[in-house]
Amino acid sequence: MPDGAPVTAVEETYTISQLAEAFELTPRTIRYYEDEGLLAPRREGQQRVYTHRDWARLKLIMRGKRLGFTIAGIKDFLDLYEVGDAQVPQMRFLLNSARDRIAILEQQLRDVQQTLVDLKEIEGLVVDHLARKGALDA
Amino acid sequence: MPDGAPVTAVEETYTISQLAEAFELTPRTIRYYEDEGLLAPRREGQQRVYTHRDWARLKLIMRGKRLGFTIAGIKDFLDLYEVGDAQVPQMRFLLNSARDRIAILEQQLRDVQQTLVDLKEIEGLVVDHLARKGALDA
DNA sequence: CCTTACGTTTACGTAAACGTAAGGTCAGGG
DNA sequence: CCCTGACCTTACGTTTACGTAAACGTAAGG
C-alpha cells in the first residue's frame, strides 16, 4: 500500500437518476425527500452528488415506507442512527424516541404475525374448497 | 331452554358513537369507512345500527391501519374473510389475493424484525453512552 | 452551432383519509 | 311546545406524498 494513500478510494458517487433507478423511485421523489430533510447530498455546481451514505439512508427510508411510516416519522427514525456526538439531554430524548418506536414495532410484529395466521387459514380453506370441487390444477 | 327460543339472544347492537369511542375514532371516520365499502350497518329509520360483526370488522380495519395498508387494501383484505359461497373463479382470485398479501406480510415481518434489531442496538449504544457519563439515574 | 440527454427550480395538480362547518331529523324530557 | 342531544347528509377544507408541466442550464456528440 503506497504511503499516504487514502484508505477509502475516491469514494463512489451516484447521480440522482442512478439512485432513482436502483430504488425504483423517481428523481422527483428523491428531491422531495431532500426537501423533507431525509437526505442532504453534496453539490457539484448545481448538481446533486450522492454517496454510499445516502444510499444507505435510502435503504432505511424504503424500509420505513414498507412499514407504513410517514416521511416525518422516517426522518425522526433516521436521526436515531446519528447518535454520534449528542449531548446528554439530546441522548435522553433519543433514548425515549427509540423506545417508543420499539414499542410500536413490537405491536406491529404481533399484528403481522396474527394476520399471517389468519391469511394462511383462509388460504387453507380456499385450497380445500377448490380441492373438493376438483379444481386444483394449474 | 324454552322451545322455539332463538339460540342467540336479541343480538347486542351499537350506535356509531359507541363504536367510535371503543375504537378511538370519530363517527365521521366510521361513516367514511362505510362510504368506502368496509362496513354496511343496518338502518333503523335513518340511524345506523352496528352489530358484533361490524365490531369484528372494525378490529380488522384497525389492524390493517397499524400495518400501513390503504383503505382500499383493507377492503380487499376484509373480502378475503368472506369466503363463504364464492364460485370457483372467484375462489381462485381470492387465493391469489391471499397469497400476494401473505408475501407482502412476510416481507414486512422481516422489515420489522430487522428494524427492531437496529433500534435495540441503538438503544444499547445510547444507554452505554449515558452510563459512561454517569447520567443514568431517573 | 444544433440537438439530445440529463440535470435544475418553481409551481400548480392530485389522490387518500379524513376534519369541519352548516343545516336537517327525530325521540325524550321539562 | 320547545329544547336538548344524538344522529343524519352535504359539501368544502386540509394534510401528506408525491406527479407533472414549464422553463432553463450545461456537457457531450454530430
From TrEMBL, chains A, B:
HTH merR-type domain sequence ranges: 13-80
What stretch or stretches form a coiled coil here?
95-122
The family database entries (Pfam families) matched by this protein are listed as: MerR_1
GO molecular function annotation: DNA binding; DNA-binding transcription factor activity
Superkingdom as given in the UniProt entry: Bacteria
* Record keyword DNA-binding present: yes
Keywords, in A-Z order = Coiled coil, DNA-binding
The record, for InterPro entries, names: DNA-bd_dom_put_sf, MerR-type_HTH_dom, MerR_fam
TM segment ranges: none
Per its record, how is this protein called by name?
A: DNA-binding transcriptional MerR regulator
